[in-house]
């Protein structure tokens, strides 16, 4: 977990489980009665529910559309004498399964039962239950997840039409605008808190993914563990974001909370429903924010913008003519002052979409027309089956060079590079490790990785074989 001056912690569950890559350790909150004291009498106002500053209608609408999400994760383990036992059909003695429970929030976004929540709330869950504000309960199924934005999509089946929230255009959200956070902090269901929009396009470095999109709406509405996946709404009761994280020293709210903007959420939902996987678009550049120190060092006559530190070989930017040293200042005519704003705009696009990129090159403004591409460098749709296990591994896997094959005396394998969160990191597999087999199946190209676990269920044993950078053979065994 990265730091931005404070310890950034996910507003996770109030239960016993820590889901995904976010770890929050909380003591059971102490609930005490408020001692009444003599105070100066407070004059009641005549503010009505139709007043622009009233939150009554928005709150009443939201609490019926925000649900309580509870999860169960069954963990399995095996005791073996040797990792080689897996290769000869003897996975060892199974340990008794352990059940871990957790909870969070979700938002109904359609009358037929689609629910948005955070990926970290439902990650690895075998059972997910949904409780509505009227106490009705349902079993939920996972439609899809996107760790890069920390968004998950669920579905429940109901005999009646369900209350739901409509998406607002989060680009229209303004600083100082009143907002409500609705969720289930500390398992206190249907809790509503109010605040204002404190900032937009915040990148807080909390999503540990290689292709993370962080452009959070920051508010001072109170958000605590259990609010994750809940709604951030405007005074009209429209969904402007999904509450995801807090900035804290203690694990509880200290004045800063962060929500994924509705425009990003809506795009993720559409992709998951249509393709089963999010269609990420890439410009093909390495970027960083322009700041005064950089501007002085590189002799850039700008105080903001997105500096192009490099272009991807044969990527969209290179093909269009963008060069290292250019400063991106606008996308489709919309000014971008920092990389999080750029990521938010491109995050709403799909491979094959065209955008106009305006750059400043040595004081001169130039416009380029780009066709965005996917992670494979083309415009084809990415299917869920081509990303699932690879995404879980959390790294780039690169084919070996002929020199490397000769060095290790092997004919094939994939080298671990650009390690982020995921299975490999959890298992202590470092960058530079060479994967040669998964479940006794040879790994010669990237497509072999998904094929090696095809048909497996959660909890099934996976054995990964390969070589360390020192040339030693090593095995890793873990649950799928």
Topology of this protein?
Elements: E1 8-10, H1 56-63, E2 66-75, E3 78-79, E4 93-94, E5 98-108, E6 114-118, H2 119-122, E7 127-131, E8 137-139, E9 141-146, E10 151-155, E11 178-183, E12 191-202, E13 216-219, E14 231-233, E15 239-247, E16 256-261, H3 262-275, E17 285-289, H4 292-297, E18 306-311, H5 316-320, E19 327-331, E20 334-335, H6 339-347, E21 354-361, E22 364-371, H7 388-393, E23 396-399, H8 402-408, E24 414-417, H9 423-426, E25 434-438, E26 441-442, H10 447-452, E27 461-467, E28 473-479
Antiparallel strand pairs: 1-15, 2-5, 2-7, 3-4, 5-6, 6-10, 7-8, 9-10, 11-12, 11-14, 12-13, 13-16, 14-15, 15-16, 17-18, 18-19, 19-20, 19-21, 21-22, 23-24, 24-25, 25-26, 25-27, 27-28
Helix content: 10-25%
Q: Which sheet architecture does the biggest sheet show?
A: 7 strands, antiparallel
> Low-confidence stretches at least 5 residues in length (pLDDT < 50)?
1-50
Shape: globular
Biggest sheet: strand arrangement: 8-7-2-5-6-10-9
CATH architecture call of the largest domain: Beta Barrel
The secondary-structure class comes to alpha+beta
Annotation, overall tally of beta strands:
28
CATH topology of the largest domain: Thrombin, subunit H
Can you give the mean pLDDT?
A: 82
Through-space gap between termini: 24 Å
Bin the strand percentage: 25-35%
> What top-tier CATH class of the largest domain fits best?
Mainly Beta
> How many DSSP H or I helices?
10
């Amino acid at each position: 977990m990265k730091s931005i001056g404070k310890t950034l912690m996910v507003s996770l569950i109030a239960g016993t489980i820590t889901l995904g890559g976010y770890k929050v350790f909380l003591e059971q909150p102490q609930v005490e009665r408020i001692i009444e004291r003599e105070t100066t009498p407070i004059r009641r106002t005549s503010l009505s529910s139709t007043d622009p500053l009233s939150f009554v209608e928005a709150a009443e609408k939201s609490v019926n559309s925000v649900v309580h999400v509870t999860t169960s994760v069954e963990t399995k383990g095996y005791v073996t004498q040797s990792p080689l036992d897996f290769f000869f059909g003897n996975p060892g003695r199974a340990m008794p399964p352990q059940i871990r429970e957790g909870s969070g929030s979700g938002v109904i976004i359609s009358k037929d039962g689609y629910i948005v929540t955070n990926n970290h709330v439902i990650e690895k869950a075998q059972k997910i239950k949904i409780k509505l504000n009227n106490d009705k309960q349902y079993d939920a199924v996972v439609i899809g997840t996107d760790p890069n934005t920390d968004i998950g999509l669920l579905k429940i089946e109901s005999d009646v039409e369900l209350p739901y929230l409509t998406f607002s255009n989060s680009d229209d959200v303004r600083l100082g605008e009143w907002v409500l956070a609705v969720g289930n902090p500390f398992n206190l269901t249907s809790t509503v808190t109010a605040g204002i929009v404190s900032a937009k396009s915040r990148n807080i470095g909390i999503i540990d993914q290689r292709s993370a999109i962080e452009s959070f709406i920051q508010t001072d509405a109170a958000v605590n563990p259990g609010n994750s996946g809940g709604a951030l709404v405007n005074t009209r009761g429209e969904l402007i974001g999904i509450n995801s994280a807090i900035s804290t020293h203690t694990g509880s709210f200290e004045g800063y909370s962060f929500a994924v903007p509705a425009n990003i959420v809506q795009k993720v939902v559409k992709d998951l429903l249509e393709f089963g996987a999010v269609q990420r678009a890439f410009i093909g550049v390495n970027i960083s924010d322009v700041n005064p120190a950089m501007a002085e060092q590189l002799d850039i006559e700008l105080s903001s913008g997105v500096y192009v530190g490099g272009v991807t070989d044969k990527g969209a930017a290179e093909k269009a003519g963008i060069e290292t040293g250019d400063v991106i200042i606008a996308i489709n005519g919309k000014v971008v002052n920092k990389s999080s704003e750029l990521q938010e705009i491109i995050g709403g696009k799909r491979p094959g979409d065209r955008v106009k990129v305006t750059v400043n090159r040595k004081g001169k403004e130039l416009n380029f027309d780009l066709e965005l591409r996917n992670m494979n460098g083309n415009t084809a749709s990415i299917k869920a089956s081509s990303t699932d296990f690879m995404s879980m591994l959390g790294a780039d896997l690169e084919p070996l060079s002929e020199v490397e094959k000769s060095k290790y005396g092997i004919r094939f394998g994939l080298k671990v590079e650009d390690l982020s969160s995921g299975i490999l990191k959890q298992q202590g597999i470092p960058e530079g490790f060479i994967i040669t087999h998964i479940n006794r199946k040879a790994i010669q190209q990237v497509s072999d990785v998904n094929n090696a676990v095809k048909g497996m269920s959660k909890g099934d044993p996976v054995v990964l074989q390969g070589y360390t950078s020192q040339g030693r053979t090593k095995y890793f065994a873990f649950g799928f």
